[in-house]
Amino acid sequence: MSDKPTTEQVCQLLDALYLHGSDEASKYLVQIQESVFGWEIADSLLKLNRNEHSSYFAACTMRYKIKEHFDEIPVESHNALKDSLITNILSMPDANKTITTQLGLALADLAIVLPSWTNIVDDFINKFSTDLSCVPFLLTLLTLLPEELMFNDTLQVKQSRWEDCKRLLTDDITKIFHLLSICLEKFPDTETILIKVFDCIASWLTLGNLPIEELSKSPLLLLPFQAVTQATTSEEVFEAAADCISSQAYSVEYTPEFQTFSQQLSENIMSLRPVFQACQEVDDFERSKSLAKCFMSYLDSYLPYILKDPDSGFGSVLSLELLVDCINHGSIKIGEMTFDIWDNMAELLERYHESEITDPYKPIFRSLMIGMWKLCQYDKDTQLDTILNEDHNSDFIRFRSVSVYELMHDVMWIYGELDTFKEMFQILLRSENTWTESESALFMMHIVADELRESKSELIGQLVRTLLSLQDNCHPLVKRSAIKVLHHLSDWINCNQELIDPVLRFMITSLRNDRIKSAAAAGIQAICFSCQDKIHLSHFEGLFQVLQSAEELGLSNDSVVTILKSLGYIISHQPPDKYESCLSNVVALQVKPLHQDVKILRIENISAETGLRESAKQWQRPENSFYFTTIDDDYELPKSSLSIGSRPPLVRPRKSRFIPEVSIERPQSPPRDVSIDIPVISVIPEEDPDEFYIPIGQLGCEVCKSLLCQIRREIGELKLMSKSLTVKREEIADYQKQADELERSKHELKRQITKQSNNSQIKVGPELFSPSSYDFYTSQSSIDPYTPQWEHPNGSGMDREYSDHPEPTGDTFSVLLSDYKAGQDQLRQLLANQDTIIIVTPATTIPVTGTKNDPCIWLDRLSSIFRSSVAHFQDVHPAASIVKEVSTDYIHLTMGTFT
Q: Where do the record's region annotations for Disordered lie (predicted)?
C-alpha cells in the first residue's frame, strides 16, 4: 500500500464490511493492518471512538502490530506509543468487554516486548486505580499480563527480556494480592469484581517460583473454597472459583517450604467431597464437572508424591477416593476426566513398587472396575436396532470400545485379571440383574478374557458353560456380548478342548439370529484359528452348509469372509485324503459360476494370422496344450484360436489397499525353461476403467506352505469383459471395507505362520495378500508397468495393446485367491514327487502391472526352482500357460517332459 487512506475512508470500509459483508472491503482492511500506516490509523480510530466496529478494528490492529510488527516503531517512539495507548484506554471507560480485552492484550504485549518498561505493575496500578470505573479494566489487564507472558508463543520477544519480565512479575506478586484485597473491600458485593479477582489469582499462580508459603497466609487463597461451598453462589462465580482452586494445585513444588501449603490445600480439597456429593444428588452437572476438575488438577499435581511418599504431607492415600467419587458420579464425561489419572497411577505404581502392588491400592482399583461396569451400561430406552447397527458411532459406543477398553488394559494388572473376571462373574450370577447390568458385566469380562489364556481356574469353565446355556429368548445384546467373551477366550478354550464342540455349535446356531450373526461369525473365526489343530471335520461340514446358505441367512460380505477363513483353518489341518476334497468343494462353490460365463477354445496353430508378430512362428507349443494369448485390436481372431476374450487394458500403478505398489527390478532375460501365465480376471468400475482394478485370481493349491483363500460373495450385476468384470461404482465401497478388515487381520496371519513354521503339512491362511517377500524370489526382476512389451527369448518383442470390451454375458461370483510363503527346499521336494500341482495366482491385476503379486513374475521365479527337479521344457513365450485339464472345479497345471 503506497498511499495512506484517511480515517473516513477506513470507516466507510468498515461499514461496507459489517453492514454489507463486502469481501473487497475485508481485503483492503487486511492490507491496512499489514501496512506501516496501520499504527497511525489504529491510533486515530481509538481517539475518534466512532462506534464499536471502528474501535474493535482499531484495538485488534494495535495488538496485531505490536505482536507482529513492533520493529516498525523506532526506539525513540516507544514511550510515545505506550503513553498514547494508555491515554486511549482511559478515554474509553464504557467500552464493551470485547474491545477492552483486545486493548488489554495490546497493552500487556507492549509491556512484555518493550525493553525499557521495568516497572510494569506499578505503572498499571498508578494509571488505572485512581478512577474506580477503571478498576475492572485494571483487573482484566493484570489477568492477561501473566497469561501472555507464559502462554503466548507468538510474541517476538528475546529470551533475556522474557526472563526479566518473569522475574519482575514474580517480585510484584505481593503487590497484586494486596491490590486484590483492596478491590474486594471497595466492591464487597459485586460478582463481576469477585470473578475477576479469582481469574487474576489463577493467572498469577501460573508464574511459578512464587513465595507460596507467604501467600498461603492471605485469605485470598481460601476465598474460592468458601465460594464453592455456598449454595447461593452463582454459576459464573462457582466456575471462576473452581479454576482458581485448580491453579493452586498446580502451583506446588516438591520442596520442604511447600509442605505447610500442601497440607492446607489437601485438607481444603478433601472438604469439597460433601459439596460434590450434594451436587450429584441434585443432578447439578455443571458444578459437579467444575469440582471434578479441581480434584483431577490436585491429583495430577500431587499423585507422584502421594504414591512415592504418602506420609510426607504432600497428600495422602485417602485423597485417591476422589477418583472413586468421580467414577461413581454416573456421568460418562465426568468419569472420563479421571482416566488419565488412573493411567498415570498404574504407571507410577509399577515404577515405585516394582510391580509389587501393596494392599492399600487394590480396593481403589476394585472401585474403578465397579465404576466402569456402571458407566458401560446401555440406556434401557436406547433403540435396539441403533445399538446393533455396526456403523453406529455414538459417543457412548466410542467410550466403551475405545476409552474403557484402553484404560482397562493399562490398569487391570493391579487388581488382577482373574479377580476382575471373578468380580464380574459374581455380578452376572445375580438373579435380580436387568439385561443392561448383565450385558455390561459381560462387556467387562470380554476385555480381560484375552489375558486368561493360561489360567487354570475352574471359574472360567463355569462361565463358559453358563454362557452356552443361554436361551434363544435371551436379550440380543446379552447374547452378543456372551459370544464376544467366548471369542476372546478362544486361546483358553484351545487348552480345554472338551469345550470346542459345544462352543462351535453355540456360535453356528447363533448365525441364524439376524441381530448377532456378525459377532457369531467373528467368534467362529477366532475359535477355528486358535483351535484349528483340534477341530473335527464335522464342523467343516457344518460351516460349509452355512456358506452354501449364506444368501438365505442374509450374511454380510464380512461375515462370509470370516466363515471362509474359518474353513481355511479347518482345512489346513486335515489329512491329505481329506484336504483336496475339502478345498475343492470350497473353491468349486465360488469358481463354478465363472466357468459358466468363460468359454475356453482350443488353439491349434499360432502364427501372425492370430494377431501375433512373425517371431511367434518360431514358437513350438506342447501338444494338446492351451494358450491364453494377447489379441491385437487390428486383427480378427480366427475360429481355431483360443482366447479368453482380449487382453485387458494395462493398469497404471496406483496406491490401493487391494493392489499394493511394489517395484521389482527387471531381469537380464526371461527364464527359458518354462513360464506360465495364469489368466487373470479384473473387476473395474464401469465409468472409469483405467483407474481402479479389483483382482480375481484363479485356483487353490498344494504348492504353497500356507495357502490364502479369500472368496467374495456375489457383488451384484457384473459385466463380463474378456478378462475383466465390470462392477457398479457403488460397489467399490464394499471392496474397501473388506480391505480394511484384511488389514486388521495381519497380526493373526503372522501368528499362524509362526505357529506352522515347522509343520510340513500344507496350510490355509486367513489373509488375502501374499507377503512382501518370498523365499523363492531368489533373483531380482522387474517389469516396467508403463512399457506394455515382453521380450521373446530370441530377442524379439511382442506388444500388449489395449482391447475393446465385449458386452456383458452374465452374473458371477468374484474369487480372490492368493499364494503364501513356501521354502525352496519344500517346493523342490514336492515337485520331485508328483507331476500335478494346482497353482494359485496371487490376487493382482494383469501380468504387466509390475507388482510383486504379479502372477507372471511369481511363476517366472518359481520356474527357476523347477529346473533342478523337472525335465527340460521347450522355449515358450513368457506369457504362455500350459494347461492339461479344465474341469468345473479347478484347473490342473501339469508339469511334464516335452522334447
A: 785-807
